[in-house]
Amino acid sequence: MAQFKEITAELVVHVASLARIELRADEIKEFQGHMAKVLAHVEELTSVPTDHVEPLFSPMRENPEFYVDGRAQRNDEVRPSLGTEKILRNAPQSELNQFKVEAVIEES
Amino acid sequence: MKNSDIHSLHLGLKEKKISYTELLAESTQAARKSQTNCLITSTLESAQESAEQKQKAGLPPQTYLDGIPFTLKDLFVTENVRTTAGSMVLYNYIPPYDGYVSKSLKEAGALLVGKVSCDEFGMGSTNENTPFGVVANPLNPAFVAGGSSGGSAAAVVEGIGHFSMGTDTGGSIRLPANFCGLVGFKPSYGRVSRYGQIAYASSLDQASPVGKTVLDIACIMEQITEKDPLDSTNAPLGAMKIVDHLITQKKDYLAGKTLGVEKSFLEALNPDVKKELEDALRVFEKNGVKIVDIKLPHLKYCVSTYYLIATSEASTNLARYDGIHYGYRHHHAGDLENTYRQSRTEGFGTEVKKRIILGTFALSSGYHDAYFKKACKMRRLIAQDYDQAFKQCQFIFAPVCASTAFSQGAGVKDSFQMYMNDLYTIPVNLAGLPGLALPFGKGQSGLPTGFQLVAPRFQDEELLKFGHAFQKGVK
Predict the structure, then answer these.
(1) Strand boundaries in B61-108, DSSP class E
(2) Which of A33, A70, B238, B364 is the most buried (most CB within 10 A)?
(3) To the nearest whole angstrom, how far is the Cα of B328 from the nearest Cα of chain A?
(4) What number is the ipTM of this complex?
């Protein structure tokens, strides 16, 4: 099952980076230990043969009777939306009725 | 009135033996005296206004919940009331809309008195994983209230509202209910709309009430089970009609029912918990329930299965917290990429980061099939174990936890060890079944013990009838 040899500090930092999270040195150590423990425990699953088992992703997929061709249906009705003013009230920064972020394209 | 059940309070309001404002005043007092740190945001002022309006109008209550004070776990979005998910990431988030649960309970006339604490995004079993501070067990402050819906359970025991809505992804309502001597009900997956419920693991999350009796739970369920077109995973079963059944239930209701027990589950319990559970089984037997031996061979793999699936789903769900549209932002990060990184790094707590990183790993290229997909196959085998067992019995009896409430500090010390405690609650979420945690007896620490009953998918009404009959049988 598992292809990795060990959970290295580099691996932890890499995965954290994929998730846009930065870790302090002490956290790297703690997370490394935690991940190693969890993944060692998870190894137990390799002893169960599952080649012919269909994965169960969500319990509702087991209830096709509630869906039409596998899709939930509702009336195609126009509903009022919340509107820009309400939405922007929670924006950390906004300007001209838009979300404001740090510059994406550098000025030349 | 603090110890009255919702149905009695309803009758009291109806017959004008108590007033809406008197009833609320008790919760206000309780909130002032609270010792558990369960409240994050108080909404007593608006509850007071509503109670006064109801009093002035002089109308009898329109639903079982009309005029009944309650609290919401801070994972349910509430229009114009701060909703934090127990996280720094949302410390200043004021939702522009009501989610399904908030809206339904408001429409039923229930009075929201506050938003209560929980482990950050529902991730934890002790209500210690939150910058808002640990929630103490209301029965003994040296212990935790349990998690993740610890604030919900503590509030009900303290009398801050007569019920609370929590959520249950891997036991988050059943465990705190068990630790605090309350009834916690996780409905079948899909029975209550998740619209406006801040997501942790979408295929497992379910809105779940906690109250003092099964009858209380029934009064709540009737108000939150309409089909909601805004959640495509919400089953179109319509509003439950259950309260009248429970009130008129015959005394010999339990006679002839079959209850499955996996014996090995009881062996692993602490002796004090085990003794109480055996006593509970004897109560069932005395009332004519037939106890059946069952086997659930794949359930021992549930912790591995759950922590792969739940963290994978969490890593995608929590990708939305990027500091751009709402919530915490690290200002002046230099560029957009660093805005994401710094906002997430500073916003999320340690346990949440652990789960995001584990989930990101389980979903990453090269590991997806070995971890996430493998876990989903295990999930199927666990669900099939239950299907098999339910051929032999109508309900299943199981522990909620091997021990009574944990001491404070246990949850933050070793999160891996803490995951192991979820052994009895998470298989129910994996299979999407309804689970009802009932209090029964006391352990060595003097804190409550209890057990859970499990029923086949969408047999929620039958499960509540069975649980109610047990509570009446004990009396």
Answers:
(1) 69-73
(2) B364
(3) 7
(4) 0.94
